[in-house]
Amino acid sequence: MSSRQLRVFGKSIRVAVWPCPGKARTPLLLLNGIGASLEMLMPFADALVDREIIAFDVPGSGKSEATILPYRLWMLSMLASGVLDQLGYGRVDVLGVSWGGALAQQFALQNPRRCRKLVLAATSQGMLMVPPRLSVLSKFMTPRRFNDAGYRKQIAGEIYGGKARTEQLLVEEFRTTSRRGYLYQQLALLGWTSMPWLPLLAQPTLVLAGDDDPVVPLANARVLSMLIRDSRLRVLNDGHLFLISSAEEAAKAVREFLDTNGRDNNGKA
Questions:
Q1: In terms of pTM, does the model score above 0.90?
Q2: Domain 2-131+178-258 belongs to what architecture?
Q3: Annotated active-site positions, please?
Q4: What is the pLDDT of residues 210-235, one digit of tens each?
Q5: What is the DSSP string of 224-267?
Q6: Separation of alpha carbons 59 and 75, rounded Å
């Protein structure tokens, strides 16, 4: 994996690329969860070794510069397109996890030709989601889980479920995040829902969910799968962080889905 800073729409954005030697497949754009730096996705990206992968830190998280003013998801979708443009990519597959799953849905809506296939992992339809318990939500919505390692270990099992209940090493890839960046990511989702237009998405879609996800209950994955016309649902025996804790299994499911109906040419423009 190599990373660098790009100037996109006037902001310094950290971008990473996992190159893939050999036969070209459609590149995969990874969109991360709220407050998370791209290191969080390294176990999954390292497991998906047979295709080129692109990821970036959302403004205010990781090593990307925070914006002065709040933004909406459609603006971040444009930012993602700007990152791809600067790197020279055309058509891509898109995988979004948790908060990034909402952004992935928005990107697919705004870029029906650029987005070939869609993978939605541990995510929901936004404001109209089946909510988690209030005790879980209150802990999840604060950046303290990123910035305080002791607190993170204390609450990991309760809010992430699955293997995080017993394997503390799962949460070691978290990095500090700014309060403003975290708040702006929350505000980007305020009032947002994909529910009315999910049936309009034409991309073949894989919905991935954990069967023990306190943050995004499994019912949300069933709603997404029901409303997206060309979709399939895969449930893993894990929690919210299955892209980390079950990286090999998740990568296998994603690989099989993306390779269905043959392999596309490289997405380089």
A1: yes
A2: 3-Layer(aba) Sandwich (3.40)
A3: 98
A4: 999 999 999 999 999 999 999 999 99
A5: HHHHSSSEEEEEESS-TTHHHHTHHHHHHHHHHHHTTT--PPP-
A6: 11
